[in-house]
Design goal:
The chain has 615 residues and is α/β, with parallel strands linked by helices. The protein is built from 21 helices and 14 strands. The protein has three domains: 16-331, Up-down Bundle (ABC transporter transmembrane region fold); 337-428 and 513-522 and 540-615, P-loop containing nucleotide triphosphate hydrolases (Rossmann fold, 3-Layer(aba) Sandwich), CATH 3.40.50; 436-507, Rossmann fold. Helix content is 62%, strand content 11%. The strands form four sheets. Strands 8-11-12-5-13-14 form a six-stranded mixed β-sheet, sandwiched between helices. Helix 17 (522-536) links the parallel strand 11 (510-514) and strand 12 (540-544). Helix 5 runs antiparallel to helix 10 (290-331), helix 6 (174-181) packs antiparallel against helix 9 (232-284) and helix 7 packs antiparallel against helix 9 (232-284). It is elongated. Bound molecules: adenosine-5'-triphosphate (ATP). Residues 126, 362-363, 368, 386, 388-394 line the site of adenosine-5'-triphosphate. It is found in: Cell membrane. Residues 37-319 form the ABC transmembrane type-1 domain.
Amino acid sequence: MGGMRRFGTGEKVKPASIFGMFVRIFAHVRLQWKALVVSIVCLTAISLLQFAIPQLTRITIDHIIPDQAYSKLYLIAIGILGSAALLGVLGYFSTSLIASIGQKVLYDLRNDLYRHLQSMDVAFFDRNRTGDLMSRVTNDVNILQQMISSSMMQLVTDLFTFTAIALYMLWIDWLLTLLLLATFPCMLFTTRLFGKRMRASFRTVQESVADVSDHLQNALTGIRLIKSFTAEQYEEERFAKRTQRNMDANIQVVRLRAAYEPIIDFLNFIGLAIVLVFGAWLAMKGHMTVGTIVAFTAYLRLLQNPIRHFSRIMNTIQQAAAGYERIMEILGTKAEVVEKPDAVRLPQVDGRIVFDKVDFAYNNDSGVLSTFDLTLEAGQITALVGSSGSGKSTIAHLIARFYDPQGGSISIDGFDLKAVTLPSLREQIGIVSQDIILFNGSIMDNIRYGNLEASDEDVHAAAEAANATDFIASFPQGYETMIGERGVKLSGGQKQRISIARAILKNPRIIILDEATASLDTESEQHIQEALAQLLKGRTCLVIAHRLSTIQQADCIYVLEQGQIVESGSHAELLQLAGRYKQLYELQFPRKGNSESAGTGTAGKKISHREAKAL
Ligand SMILES: Nc1ncnc2c1ncn2[C@@H]1O[C@H](COP(=O)(O)OP(=O)(O)OP(=O)(O)O)[C@@H](O)[C@H]1O
């Protein structure tokens, strides 16, 4: 395969080796050294027992039969049955111990992965598909899990037995053993050759699983859109293309395996032929006993076990290696928005926000802001208006440090955002936007998300301030009503009020309203406006609105066009200026003209969201 890419970028990095995978797994395993020591003791005992059983065969053939030692036969029976019973008990302990070590490693890995994902910046999530990320945390970790639980134990036992037996065989007959071992490099070479190809195919399989998961995620969340455009057929074809890629890659794996296994079997038979022919020759010459040959053939099987098993579990191992690569791609990606090591806690702020010569572009595309200056005074309502795509939401994202500007600086009360810790910054910012995210859970849980320490009374007070108590009380289970996918469906306005209650409970110093009332009908808007008035009271507020009716009370309004401020002032001042703001205003309130009282009441309600968005 051509090498993997650093996640979400074009940069190529070396593919992870299977050895690297085992080393990393072992680094975690080391932490559970007690369980590890017990398993190693069990495995050593298993190897010794596996070694002892063929010795009993040899003793029977070489000594007991020729000596007609009837009285010793029961010892052989006890020896074999005792060894078998011990093998069973030791097998039980080593299997369960190694499996639990493995599961613990995966538990840590999955949690590390989740923690790492949470620490990534917003740009990372812009770049990567949700379904693909989900598939890495679930499917790829599962594959690794399968390998650890089913194959690791086998491999480790085999390696122990291999070493013990190879040493014994070299001691008994080094020449015969070396001849035998000559087949091993061929097996390793074949395994490597096929392994590489299989891994490439498995990587395709896993990528296609991620594609399928991504498609499903999009299609299921967008099912209304698909139906409204009657695009079912089109989506079905797109889905089939993705599953076809999965099928092709799987068939390729099966073909490789079908060719690989007979080759390994053939090499195993060469080993058997060597032992039989050369051993018989030695026996006929009187240099070796028949019992030793029989024991040698039994050892040969044990010696070849690692390779034979490896060929069987190679599927799982290569699949795990491909999954491991995909996991490492995430773990190896670093967030760009990070805290400096010497970052300080941002103290309780008044909320004066200053953009000083800020340059910003998403993904090194053409810039959204360039040498951009803006000051939001503490305790005031500042509004941003302007055409779609002019950069209003970008300004909000930069304040919350979802992205870092490429040039210039942004500060709050004189603290550069890059010099303060992220939680201390974001704790003081509340964002209420048009895209409301409520989690599956009760209304109580959703409001309490604003402050996980809040008491029930605090939650009730926040709901009261957000004008949400009436509709909450109308549900039979009140605050315990489940919302989200498994619960009741809330209207846009109800969701909005819950999100406002959540922000009120958070009690941040700075509030950002991004299109917060854009999609509401008149009646909801009335409720929301009252709730918002509660939320904005006494805080530093940035209000982004398409509806000019919602921002006339702002202390200062900035009109933004293509990332530049073209006008600023109060509503009245801007109307007098008779520039871009007035133009936007007249588009929204044609009949009221430039009357200053317009829009506070009915005029604003006549304009639809679509019209407003089009501005
Ligand atoms: N995550 C992103 N990745 C890349 N480009 C983006 C991203 N978000 C916004 N942009 C681009 O940045 C520019 C400014 O977008 P922004 O969302 O700030 O505008 P806006 O004024 O808030 O628009 P609207 O009123 O339509 O919401 C647009 O050209 C947009 O395409």
